[in-house]
Here is the input.
Amino acid sequence: MAAGRFLDAAEAVFDLLARTQLGALRKYLSPRLTGLRMWPIRKFQRQLIFYRPIKDGIEVVRVLHSSRDIAAALENEPADDGR
Here is the structure.
């Protein structure tokens, strides 16, 4: 099943990123997106993980298809204010 393969691939990449923090550092207008990195999901190369390194691993901000307006999707991401 495609959904299961996608989930397995995504989880493997999340683990890899938590250990290695690979990925291109991205720059966006919003200061709350500072430090955001991007990395594709293996075997699903058009699915991009946007994450930032944190003390104990990574914080996955979004997983987006590369055909999306990525800057708009990320800039419109609700702020995580602890609510």
About this structure: The domain at 2-75 is CATH 3.30.2310 (YaeB-like fold). The first strand starts at residue 24 and ends at 25. The chain has a mean pLDDT of 89. Helices lie at 2-20, 70-75.
